Amino acid sequence: MLEGTIRNINYRTLGIALPNNKNSPKNINFQRSEQSKDSIFFRDGVRQIDFVLSYVDDMKKDSDIKAERRREFELNLRKTGLELEIEDKMNSEDGKTFFVKIHAPWEVLVTYAEVLGIKMPIKLSDIPRPKYPPLSYMLGPVKLPANVKYPHPEYFTAQFNRHRQELFLIEDEATFFPSSARNRIVYYILSRCPFGIEEGKKKIGIERLLNSNTYLSAYPLHDGQYWEPSKTPTHINERYILRQNWARFSYFYKEQPLDLIRNYYGEKIGIYFVFLGYYTEMLLIAALVGLACFIYGLLSMENNQSSNEICDPDIGGQMIMCPLCDEVCDYWRLNTTCLHSKFSHLFDNESTVFFAIFMGIWVTLFLEFWKQRQARLEYEWDLVDFEEEQQQLQLRPEFEAMCKRKKMNPVTKEMEPYMPLCHRIPWYFVSGATVTFGMALLLSSMVSIIVYRLSVFATFASFMESEATLQNVKSFFTPQMATNLSGSCLNCIVILILNFFYEKISAWITKMEIPRTYQEYESSLTLKMFLFQFVNYYSACFYVAFFKGKFVGYPGKYTYMFNLWRSEECDPAGCLVELTTQLTIIMIGKQLFGNIHEACQPLIFNWWRRRRTRTHSEKLYSRWEQDHDLQVFGQLGLFYEYLETVIQFGFVTLFVASFPLAPLFALMNNIMEIRVDAWKLTTQYRRPVAAKAHSIGVWQDILYGMAIVSVATNAFIVAFTSDIIPRLVYFYAYSQNSTEPLSGYVNNSLSVFLIADFPNHTAPMEKRDFTTCRYRDYRNPPDHENKYVPNMQFWHVLAAKMTFIIIMEHIVFLFKFLLAWMIPDVPRDVVEKIKREKLMTVKIIHDFELNKLKENLDFEYGTIKDDIVEDNRSVTDKTSI
C-alpha cells in the first residue's frame, strides 16, 4: 500500500496522469510546436499554470546576487512541492525576458487548503435559494441566465481537511479547487518562501524580490482570451463569460453575476462590486425622489410669488439696489436678476426641506440595509467564521529592511523585526507636519480661488453693468453668476491637479512612517487620502454654503478680505443657486474626468507596451506574455475605487439639499462605473491575486461618519443658505395680505440705505439722482434712532433658523435610531440558514467519523478474529502431533 502511495506521488510530481485517475486530462505527448498561443498549460499540456514569474537577466553589478536569489528561491519553491517550468528568453517576444511557470499539484493544494482554512463542499444544500419578489417577471430584461448568475449549486461546506478527503465532493481533482483558490494558495507559498540569509536574517517573500527587481512581476494567468470561449471541453473560460455577461457597456441595465465574479477574482474584489451595485440600486430611489422635487420646482416656477415680484417692473423694476463693489460698480435695478431668481426657485422651494429630511432617512436605510446585505453575503460566500488572513499581517519588506532589532512576537512565539517607538516618533512628527502643511496648502488654494472671485467680480461688474442695468433689462448672466461659473470651473481644474500631487505625497508620507504590515500601511494611507480629498473636494462647497454672504456687513461698513477686496454678497434670491452651480461643476467634472481616465489610461498604456515589446512577431506570443503586457491592478487598486465612491457619496449626502439632482447624476455615473471597472479588470489588467474579505473595512466607518455629518450640513444649508426660513417667518409673522401671504416679501427682505451715508472711497464714481438704495438684510432704516442696527425681524429669523436646525436634526436622528433599532443587522432567515448549515456540517462530519471508526473497528476485529483462528489451528496442529 505504501509503495502505491509513493508511486502515485511520484507520478503526480512528474505531471503524468495515472491510468484510472480522475484528473487524467488531455494529450500527454503534447509538443511545443503544437502549443497554442492561448495555452494555459505546461508544455506537456497536462499541468495547468497557476502562477507566472518574470525576470530579465541584466548585466549590472548586482546581477550575480539576483541570479543567486532566484536560484535559491526557485529551489525552495520546488522543495515545497510546487512544479516549475522555465521559458527561455529566446522564446519570448522581446528576446530578453525569462518566464517561470508554476503549477501546484494536488498534494500541495490539499495541504495548504487546510492551512488557509478554505471551505469546500461536502453536500448539496437543502436550503432553497431566495425567491424573487412578486411581479419579478417585470424585471426579466434585467436578469441574467441562471447558469451565469449561479454558476455552481449551493452546497454545505466545511474547512478542508486532507485527512478527510473522502468527506468532500471531489469529482475531478483538476477542477475541485477553483482557479482563484489555486492562485491564492500559490501566492501564500510565494510570500513565505525564503531566498537566502543576509546579515544573519532569513529573507523571505516574493514581494521583497519584486521590490529589489530580482523578479519583474508575479501574477496568476487569466483563464483564456476574453473574446473567445475555451477550445478545451474540460476547461471553462470564466473570463470570456464575464466579458460577455458583465464587462460590456451594452449590458448597463443588467444585474451583475456576483457569484462568478467572486469565483474568478476572489471575495475582496467581489464584495466591492456587490457594494457598488447595492449603492447604485439605492441611488435609484433617491434619484426618483430628487427628480420629483426638481419637477415640482419646475412646475411651480411661474407661480412663485418672490420671483414674480422681482420680475415685476412695478415692484422689482422700481427697487434701486446698492452697488456690488466699491467705486467702479453702479446702482442696478432688482428686476435685472429676474431669470436668476426663477432659476433659483428650481432648487430653493418647499420641497427642499422635505428632500433634506428624506435624504437623512435614506442614508440611514442605505447603511442599515447594507449591513443586512453584507450579512447575507457572508453566509452565501462562506465568510461567517472568517478571520483576517495571515498574509494581511505579513511584515512589509521596507519595515524589515529598516529594523535592526528583533523581538518575540507573543502570538507566533517567533523572533521578528522590531522598531522601538522612540525611533518611530521622528517619522511621525515629519508625517504629521507634512499632513498639516498639505492641509494648509489645500486651504490656501481655496483662499486663492476666493481671491480670484473677489478680484474678477469688480471686472465683471464694470463691463456687465451699464445703463442697461438701470433700465428694465433682464439678464441671466449677472456679475455674480459669471463670477461663480468661472470660479467653479477654475476650482474644478485646480482640484484635479492637486488631487494628482496629493496622491503621490500621501503615499510618500505613509512610506516614511514605516508601517509594520500591509494592513497598517493601507489604514494609514486611507486616513491621509480621505482627509486630503475631503478638504480638496468639499472646501469650496463649504465656503459657498456657510461663509459666502454671511459676513458681508452693510453699505458704508462692509467687511474686507486682507483689507483689499470686499466680501462677496449673495444674490437677492440667496446663495443656494451658487452652491448648486459649484456642486454640479465639481461633481460632474470629477466623474467625467475619472471615467475617461479609467477607460483610456490602461488602453493607451497596454497599446504602447505591446507595441514596444513585440519586436519579434514571428515568435509565439504566449498567454503568459500577453498577460505580462497588461496593466497591474496592484494592492491599492481597490483602495482608489472605494475612495472614489466614498467621495461621490459625500456629494450625494453632504450638500444634497442644494441639488436634488445629485443622486440622479451619481446613479448615471455608477451605472457606467460598474461596466468601466468590469471592462478594465477583465480585458486591460492582469488577473489580481484572489484575497478574502468579509466587509468593506474602514470605509464603512467613514460612511457612517459622513452620514451623521450630512444631517447637520443639510440642516444648516436649509436654514442659512436657502431662503425658505425667512419666507416662512414672513408668512406667519409679518404678512399683511391674507389672500396672498407672501405678497410683499421681497420688499420686506431688503433694507434701505441712505446714499449720502456712503464713505467717499466706496460710493460710485458716477453720481445719480437717487437718495436711497436697497440691500439684502434686516436692519433699521436711516430715519431710525438706531439706524442700520439689526431689527427685531433679524432676530426672529435667526431664532427660526436655529429652531429649524434643532428640530430637523432631532427628527432625522430619531428616525435614524428607530430604524437602526428596528432593522436587525443580520436578517432572521440568514440566522436560521447559518444555524441549519452549522448543524448539518457537524452532523455530516460526525457521521463520517463514526462510519470511519466502525470500518476501523471492523477491520481490527476481523484481523483479531483471523489471528485467533490461526492460533487455534496452530494449537490443534501441535496437539495432534
TrEMBL record:
Membrane topology (UniProt): Multi-pass membrane protein
Q: Does the keyword Transmembrane apply?
A: yes
Q: Does the keyword Glycoprotein apply?
A: yes
Care to name a GO molecular-function term for this sequence?
chloride channel activity
Query: Listed GO cellular component terms?
Result: plasma membrane
Q: Give TM segment ranges.
A: 271-299, 352-370, 425-452, 481-502, 525-546, 646-667, 702-722, 794-819
What subcellular compartments does it reside in? Cell membrane; Membrane
Please state every residue range assigned to the domain named Anoctamin dimerisation. 41-258
Record key words, sorted? Cell membrane, Glycoprotein, Membrane, Transmembrane, Transmembrane helix
Domain Anoctamin transmembrane positions: 261-837
Family, per the entry? Answer: Belongs to the anoctamin family.
Q: What is this protein called?
A: Anoctamin
